[in-house]
UniProtKB/TrEMBL annotation:
It is an enzyme of class 3 (hydrolase). The active site is at S76, D176, H205. Gene3D superfamilies: alpha/beta hydrolase. It comes from Meiothermus taiwanensis. The lineage of its organism: Bacteria, Thermotogati, Deinococcota, Deinococci, Thermales. GO terms for molecular function: monoacylglycerol lipase activity. Residues 3-211 form the Serine aminopeptidase S33 domain. PANTHER family: PHOSPHOLIPASE-RELATED (PTHR11614). Keywords: Hydrolase. It comes from the Bacteria. Its EC number is 3.1.1.23. The keyword Hydrolase applies. Substrate binds at F10, M77. The keyword Hydrolase applies. This is Thermostable monoacylglycerol lipase.
Length: 231
C-alpha cells in the first residue's frame, strides 16, 4: 500500500485548505497523513516563536512514520517542505502545488527589518480580509516575524532541489496573487530528476479551495497511481 504525506501552506488551515484531495487519495487506496505544522490550526499568535526548522521536523517525522513507498504532496510552503523531504529521502513521488519559492509582493522580503516596527502582516490586502475570511479557513493575518522564518526556508530550498530524483509533478495557479509564475518555474527547473511534469491550472493560489479543486485532486491522484500503482 502506498502512502502520501500532505503538507499545507503558511498560515493555512492544516486540513480544510487541502480541499477534496485527502479524501480522494484515501478513496483511491492510499494511506494519507496530514500533519499540523507548528503554529497552525489554532490562532495567528501561535506562530510567534516557531522556527522553519520546527515545520521541517514535524513534516519529517510524519513522513518517516508512514510505510513505504512514500509520496509527498505540498501546497505553497508545503511545497518547499515537500521538496526538502524528496531531496533528503528516497521519495517515491513529489507533487508541489504553487510552491512558494518567491513572492509577488516584494515588500515581503523586508520582513527581517519590518517586524520590529510592524509586528503584524495581513495574508491579503486589509480591505480583502473580511471577504477572504468568509471564503477561506486560513489565518487572515500573522506575526511578521513568522514571515522571516518562511523566507529563511525559502532561501535554503533551491540548493536541495537538484538532489530530487523522484518523479515530480509541479502545478502552477495561473491566477495566483501570492507566488509568481517565475518562482514556480524556477522550482520546477531546479528539480534534478528527469521524470518531471509541469501543469498550469486556471485557479488561484489556494488551488484546492478553488472551483477546479475536484479536477486538480483527481489529476493528482491519477498521476500518483501512474507513478506508484494503485494504493
Amino acid at each position: 500500500m502506498s502512502s502520501v504525506l500532505v503538507l499545507h501552506g503558511f498560515t493555512s488551515h492544516p486540513t480544510l485548505t487541502m480541499g477534496p484531495l485527502p479524501e480522494t487519495l484515501r478513496k483511491a487506496g492510499f494511506t494519507v497523513a496530514q500533519p499540523t505544522l507548528p503554529g497552525h490550526g489554532t490562532r495567528p499568535e501561535d506562530l510567534r516563536g516557531v522556527r522553519w526548522l520546527d515545520w521541517l521536523q514535524t513534516a519529517r517525522e510524519a513522513y518517516l512514520a508512514l510505510p513505504e513507498p512514500r509520496a509527498v504532496v505540498g501546497l505553497s510552503m508545503g511545497g518547499l517542505l515537500a521538496g526538502w523531504l524528496a531531496a533528503e529521502h528516497k521519495t517515491a513521488a513529489l507533487v508541489a502545488l504553487a510552491p512558494a519559492l518567491g513572492f509577488k509582493n516584494r515588500l515581503a522580503y523586508l520582513a527581517p527589518l519590518l517586524h520590529y516596527v510592524k509586528p503584524w502582516a495581513h495574508s491579503t490586502h486589509p480591505v480583502e480580509v473580511a471577504r477572504r475570511q468568509a471564503q477561506s479557513p486560513n489565518y487572515p493575518n500573522f506575526p511578521t516575524v513568522a514571515l522571516v522564518q518562511l523566507i529563511a526556508l525559502q532561501r535554503r530550498v533551491p540548493e536541495l532541489l537538484p538532489r530530487v530524483r523522484a518523479p515530480a509533478l509541479v502545478l502552477e495557479a495561473a491566477h495566483d496573487d501570492t507566488v509568481p509564475e517565475a518562482a514556480v518555474r524556477r522550482y520546477f527547473a531546479l528539480i534534478g530528476g528527469p521524470d518531471k511534469e509541469y501543469r498550469v491550472y486556471q485557479s488561484q493560489h489556494d488551488m484546492l479551495l478553488d472551483p477546479l479543486a475536484p479536477q486538480i485532486s483527481d489529476d493528482i491522484v491519477a498521476w500518483l497511481r501512474e507513478k506508484l500503482g494503485a494504493g
